[in-house]
Here is the input.
Amino acid sequence: MSQELFINVMSAEVRAALMDDSVLIDLIVERRERASVVGNIYLGSVERMMKGMEAAFVDIGLGKSGFLGMDDNRRGNGETSAPVHEGEAILVQVTKDAIGTKGVQLSRRLSLPGRSLVYAPSQDRVMVSRQIEDEAERDRLTGLMADIAEKGEGFILRTASVGATGEELAADRAELLETWQTIEDTQATIKAPSCVHADIDPVLRVLRDHALDGIDRIHVDDGPASEAARKFCERVMPGMAERVALHSGPTQMFEQYGIEEEIERACRRRVDLPSGGGLVIETTEALTSIDVNSGRFDAASDLEQTALRTNSDAAREAARQIRLRNLSGLIVIDLIHMESDDNWNAVTEILDDITGRDRNPTRVLGATEAGLVEITRRRRREPLLHTMTEICKACGGAGRVKSLEAASIDILRALKREARVVPPGKIVMYAAPDVVNSLESDYGEMVDGVEDECGRTIDLRADAEYGRENYDIVVEKAD
Here is the structure.
């Protein structure tokens, strides 16, 4: 089994794809203008107390107030934090991005992630990630931290700490404590609402959170970003530095490795299965349903074994799609009926095994009496479908079309690609009026950058006959 991390860098967007044996299992998409604020720490002002909900709304300067649950007042060491009051300035951290009409979710339990450790100022103990299952390794890491952490300090040993030396853990601790001291110094000099601490650059954050020891290669398709990644690895995780490689060549990286095609599939309702069946994935405000459709049954086949084979394929693909699409909340899988309890257990074990590798906490609750398998997954950021598409105004929400941002960025990629291979001459691009307007007003500098890079003139022409997802690129040959 080999794992590779692919990081695609554009001025408007950073995408990271994790491949396991050439199969896409995770995708992170971050737009520069709508970057995630999860992990950022703010000095916020309490706007309103909601005693009936045991919650408060806190202004942190993002336009829409954040939600702070009052049960969050309990500190990690069992003590209770001081209650908050309207008008009070408090230090909070974003735990979930804003989704739809809901603002960000906040917590008073602050934490700072490092490479191997998470520093938790409100705690007074050392804990080990539940994903580290080897008891001997858990004991070794706990013993090392007993000599490193001082009284009153709280730390969580991350999955990436497996195999770490005492020197590496001590260096991580020192860097985290230095960052925390900066936060305390900054808090004393500013007024609410203000950002006290922002997480690191998206490319480096991907490396910190996803470049575990199991990664065999890290591909970056941008020269400066590749160099920054290598330097970051040399400083934080030296063993990874030699695995960073700059992608070069005429074919764009995500296209060469089939990632673009997989992203397109991840935005569709139906996913085909090797057995001939398929999954139909539908998300509502309450839950996500995954319906398993069987292929055609052979009259001579054993129906129970056919159902087991199809359900096993469905479990593997459903677990992959849940992570890839960043589905969260309650997820219900409607499997094909099976008579045998052993077969049901075999299918749920497959789900347990694959979801257990997900960095986002995921629980398989088991099958209901109706034969539905329930799964819960923590909600942290927008689902992929919300990032890549938007509700179609023409159909009143019954379907979805590619978002204006995604359509514009796709065309920018296409212009870069075509400018390198088409014959010399002026490049003319025909697209829908709203897409052309977006390219001219929001991405004009990037279009100019493609012209400068390729030495070609690009003419954007609006045509009402084109839908948002359609465009044509032609070349007007020079005389």
Remarks:
- Residues 181 and 413 are 42 Å apart (CA to CA).
- The first strand starts at residue 3 and ends at 9.
